[in-house]
Design a protein that fits this description.
Elements (H helix, E strand, L loop, with lengths): L9 E7 L5 E7 L10 H16 L3 E8 L4 E3 L5 H9 L6 H18 L5 E5 L2 E3 L1 H7 L3 E4 L4 E3 L13 H4 L7 H8 L5 H7 L4 E2 L5 H9 L7 H16 L15 H6 L6 H9 L6 H12 L2 H14 L4 H18 L1 H11 L17 H7 L22
Parallel strand pairs: 2-3, 3-5, 4-6, 5-7, 6-8, 7-9
Antiparallel strand pairs: 1-2
Helix pairs in contact: 1-3, 2-15, 3-4, 3-14, 6-13
Length: about 375
């Protein structure tokens, strides 16, 4: 058992399992902020996960959030806002440092090797989805609410979204990126962001079962043992899984993939048939969001189709730093989280008014290839 204090931003445990193996458990410990991912959290998780990855006694790792409301409600962006406030229109080292470390952590989870289980209960948004998306075993519950709502703050779906949004059924990544629509457990399974549905009340029982497994030294067999245990646990929970919201609108969403321009996509979303609350809210979020972000999402998904995972994170880091410099991100945070007036003064009134040059500059990396902070990402990894 590792020693933590209740004030630790992340709590760590090493649970004794059968065969002398251990299960590493990391708990995001900021219940009041819905476990929003802060830089201290990232700086704590990264070396601990690296140590567990290298430790032969650790059979698997589990990530969870404190409390019952959220796994992780996104990145803690108030410090990012302050940094942008202190140096408007300038390259901000703190912004670069935050995203560089966050993306390094996300990539580590994607390429961890050993089984990584994420308990995606409650709210899972933005940076929380970055932690969850790359895990080998992703659990959702009846209360799971998953979203990439960055349109509302003038940023864009990052944390590897340029890679994983492209691996969803046709049109889904584009729709979710542009609307920030919240999806449930059934949706998450349908689009490939979750693997198993288990009742939240059964978490303690599941952990007990995991501790009873005879873990070995063969990583592939340990993956199979975990998959088998989760499949058994899921059987008694399936009747509680909610109905998918995406499936209801699957046909018009899929059609978005055929649109040639961003304007076509936006018009198609706004014209989608249906009066249900989910679709209505998605349309409202698209209308509220930054027109610049809409261009970023559209271009990012085009570029992401041909990139490996490490290159996706390198692209996103440059893009995030440029967003921090532009001012749209800062204004979006102000309107939604600081002043809370919900009246962002975006730089442009709609997608048609955004100059091509502005979008091109955002996609221009601030660094040369050799000097990129994530230049070494993936150099030692195979298969990504």
């Amino acid at each position: 058992m590792l020693v933590n204090t209740d004030s630790s931003v992340v709590l760590y445990q090493e649970l004794q399992a059968a065969n002398g193996k251990l299960i590493g458990v990391a708990t995001l410990n900021s219940e009041k902020s819905l476990n929003a991912l802060s830089l201290p959290m990232v700086e704590s998780l990264l070396p601990q996960l690296q140590a567990w990855q290298a430790d032969p006694t650790i059979a698997m790792v589990m990530l969870q959030g404190a409390g019952d409301k959220a796994f992780c409600a996104g990145g803690d962006i108030r410090d990012l806002y302050q940094a942008m406030q202190d140096a408007p229109g300038q390259f901000q080292p703190y912004v670069a440092d935050f995203f560089c470390k966050e993306y390094t952590l996300d990539y580590l989870i994607h390429t961890f090797g050993k089984p990584v289980l994420v308990w995606g209960n409650g709210i899972v948004m933005g940076g929380g989805l970055g932690l969850m998306a790359g895990a080998s075993h992703r659990i959702v519950t009846a209360s799971s609410r998953i979203a990439m709502p960055e349109m509302a703050i003038g940023l864009y779906p990052d944390v590897g979204a340029s890679w994983f949004l492209n691996r969803m059924p046709a049109g889904c990544g584009l729709f979710l990126g542009l609307t920030g629509a919240s999806i449930n457990a059934a949706d998450a399974r349908f689009i490939g962001l979750a693997d198993v549905f288990i009742c939240h009340e059964q978490k303690a029982e599941l952990v007990q079962k995991l501790c009873s497994i005879n873990w070995g030294d063969t990583v592939s067999l340990n993956h199979q043992k975990l998959s088998d245990a989760l499949r058994v646990q899921e059987q008694g929970c399936r009747t509680q899984m909610p109905l998918s919201q995406i499936r209801v609108h699957q046909e018009p969403i899929a059609a978005l993939a055929q649109a040639a321009t961003l304007a076509e996509v936006v018009n198609s979303i706004m014209a989608m048939p249906g009066e249900d609350k989910w679709l209505t809210k998605a349309k409202a979020s698209l209308s509220y969001g930054s027109p610049i972000t809409a261009h970023i999402v559209f271009r990012l998904l085009q570029l992401g189709q041909t990139k490996i995972l490490a290159d996706s994170f390198r692209l996103e880091l440059g893009l995030s730093v440029q967003c921090g410099k532009l001012g749209e991100f800062q204004e979006g945070v102000r309107a939604l989280l600081i002043d809370k007036d919900l009246q962002p003064k975006w730089l442009y009134p709609d997608v048609a008014a955004v100059p091509v040059e502005v979008v091109a500059e955002l996609f221009r990396s601030p660094w040369s290839e050799a000097a990129h902070p994530l230049a070494q990402l993936g150099k030692q990894q195979q298969g990504y």
